[in-house]
Amino acid sequence: MQKLKVCELFAGVGGFRLGLENTGSYEVVWSNQWEPSTKTQHASMVYEARFGSENHSNTNIEEVPTLEIPNHDILVGGFPCQDYSVATTLKNSKGLIGKKGVLWWSIHRILSEKENKPKYLFFENVDRLLKSPSSQRGRDFAVMLKSLNNLGYAVEWRVINAAEYGMPQRRRRVFFLGYHKSTEIYKTLQRTSPAKWILEQGTIASSFPVKKQSTSTSFSLEKDLVSLSNSFNLEKGHSPFLNSGICLENDVHTIKTAADFYGSRAVLSDVLEDTSEAEFYISESDIPKWEYLKGAKKEIRKTKAGFEYNYSEGSMVFPDALDQPSRTIITGEGGKSPSRFKHVVQTSTGLRRLSPVELERLNMFPENHTKLDGISDTKRAFFMGNALVVGIVEQMGNALFQKINALEEQLQN
Contact at 8 Å (CB) between 398 and 207? Predict the structure, then answer.
């Protein structure tokens, strides 16, 4: 079977591309990376340095005409988590107006306008997507599922914590795959019981095995998109979306699952390098500041307006445990200033922060992938705080390609 052609949106420094290309089964034919809030497009610079500038776009995706995007088999991307409410419909258009700048609607627009729609979708987002916004828990995800169903796609999703499958970082993200109704996977999904697909036969289950933990729920997204957006879960209860599920022809089936993994497990010490670079080491005089920020607190604080309130928080492990997977890398991981959330490790030569290479290893990127003239260590740390774990994309990409292959072989026989 030929390689699947990939279009990569919100490409960052190329985590999706690395994972898919590692399988040998995918070829990126077009990519887009645009950071609206910065003048210098650092992430796009790294992307072009690693993969070349051919067929790479560094333009706001909202301004890229669909005609400029080549046909592709699979559309991928880790799009920003925003407010996905539907503002209104257009009378003389197939389109919907979400808020301007909400990049989900750029994906929707491309899928709506493409005559040759991609057969497969592969997206990633923060897991709070399943329960946002707080005023209508789950509405945003419901709007996305409904809009994809309207465009002819079935969707399966799973919240995956990379560390639960042996990877070196506790990073929890929701991944979802879409299958166009023209595909054999869609047709197979129609013939398979939802629970069997979610727990055993689905693409995600074959790459990241699970066991059923407890509850399962089914419900329908019957209303049109605008009504759904306005009325979904107005009771303000818990989100109905559990950590695993499928949505096919407006019917949602969702199950709470737990990882079922017995392989080897990487820990923080596995990614550490020998470094004597002074900038990563914490001076004796700064240690009390780090200890205070990492420690438990019960204190009275004042707002700018002078209002006093009780503030409390628990302690964090300090320094970080080397025999466990790391905590989640955040975008503020770089820089010398003491912080509650930055990682600190104890080495034979003292306490220090993590180096850019160690942060890359935690996301399973090649070493020095983000090293480039004009890119600071702080910016490199920011990239990794925004990135995904490459190993998850690779395993899921492999499983998807194998499933497509197996179903095509069945057809031929």
Answer: yes
Q: Which tens digits make up the pLDDT trace of 228-264?
A: 888 899 887 899 999 999 999 999 999 999 999 999 9
Q: Give the separation between CA 128 and CA 175, rounded to whole angstroms.
A: 12
What crossing angle do the helices spanning 15-22 and 390-412 adopt, rounded to 10°?
50
**Separation CA 407–CA 412 (nearest Å):** 9
Are the C-beta atoms of 375 and 42 separated by less than 8 Å? yes
Domains and CATH numbers, the chain: 4-263+390-412 (3.40.50.150), 268-386 (3.90.120.10)
Q: To the nearest 10°, report the CA torsion of 338, 341, 342, 346.
A: 90
CA angle 152, 205, 4 (to 5 degrees): 55
Q: Among residues 50, 58, 81, 184, which one is catalytic?
A: 81
Confidence (pTM): 0.94
Residues composing the chain: 413
Catalytic residue status for 7: no
